Amino acid sequence: MKHVSIIIYEGVLSTAVSNTASLLMSANEAAEKKGFDVPFLIELIGVQNKTVQSNLPLQFCCSKMISEKFETDVIIIPPMDTDPAHIDAFLAKNNALINWIKRKYDEKAQMISLCTGAYFLAESGLLDHMSATSHWGAMEDLQKRYPRIDFKPDHVVTHSKAIITGGGGFSSLNAMLYFIEQSLNKEIAVELSKFYALDYGRTSQNIFAVFSGQRLHDDDEIHKAQSYIERTFRTDISVEQIAGQVNMSRRNFIRRFKNATRLNPIEYIQRVKVEAAKKAFETGEANIADVTYSMGYNDLKTFRTVFKKITGFTPADYRNKFKGQEISS
């Protein structure tokens, strides 16, 4: 039996804790029904206090604290319910947890971070030179803070050595399904995915990502170039044209743009166009050709190729997935 520690800190996202615990308890029940021993002993482990008030009208009562001595096989770090502007203070407040995570990893405990729980693993240094994922909305900040980590913004799950990381929101539960499959078998993982209506085998979270412009840098000229792109993306703009707006040579502009945004100018233009197209489909625009031409594309095939590369869906599939729901009476 594996001892599983779910970490409870002040500011933890309560729904992630309850969903994770429920999934593990269901795995225990499924294993018992198939004649296996109960695979997981699940405990809530407190950081600052044994009783933690969540952001919802409920409390978590922990059986142990990280200050106590105990052995554990698996440590699950749920996401935080914290404003991105307060991350520095939040990590400083949880420095004891970060040091505890490092010690337990040295003692051969397996680590699983869910969504923005990746901040704790990243801050500990355990993810250096490894692949990792997190919520797509936190990815730009994570990449800037921790350049030694190979973040995979599109991945739902990564597994490097004894560390599993999960993507954003409820898709992070795919990391738990992956862990259950690795610990038990595929049959139980698939059974649980059906019971909880989870998308078993999802590998990409690109469809959920909202491109927000990669603005966490200090290059004022590149900020101007980005603003120009965002104003004129519906036209057939060129790299030379944008470079001219900020009085740079094409070569110097491309170098500075990529250093600031981690994208080359063409990739950035494509992402701005695709984000606008996504919003058009989400708000009810049904004609793919009209959307294509309104984004400055003259060729449907090119638009389809770019759209699928960025979102993982064709324009038609994306439109159909996110069009308004019709509820039959």
Automatic annotation (TrEMBL):
<dbReference type="InterPro" id="IPR020449">
    <property type="entry name" value="Tscrpt_reg_AraC-type_HTH"/>
</dbReference>
<keyword id="KW-0238">DNA-binding</keyword>
<dbReference type="Pfam" id="PF01965">
    <property type="entry name" value="DJ-1_PfpI"/>
</dbReference>
<feature type="domain" description="HTH araC/xylS-type">
    <location>
        <begin position="223"/>
        <end position="321"/>
    </location>
</feature>
<dbReference type="GO" id="GO:0003700">
    <property type="term" value="F:DNA-binding transcription factor activity"/>
</dbReference>
<dbReference type="InterPro" id="IPR018060">
    <property type="entry name" value="HTH_AraC"/>
</dbReference>
<protein>
    <submittedName>
        <fullName>AraC family transcriptional regulator</fullName>
    </submittedName>
</protein>
<dbReference type="GO" id="GO:0043565">
    <property type="term" value="F:sequence-specific DNA binding"/>
</dbReference>
<dbReference type="InterPro" id="IPR002818">
    <property type="entry name" value="DJ-1/PfpI"/>
</dbReference>
<dbReference type="InterPro" id="IPR009057">
    <property type="entry name" value="Homeodomain-like_sf"/>
</dbReference>
<keyword id="KW-0805">Transcription regulation</keyword>
<dbReference type="Pfam" id="PF12833">
    <property type="entry name" value="HTH_18"/>
</dbReference>
<keyword id="KW-0804">Transcription</keyword>
<dbReference type="InterPro" id="IPR029062">
    <property type="entry name" value="Class_I_gatase-like"/>
</dbReference>
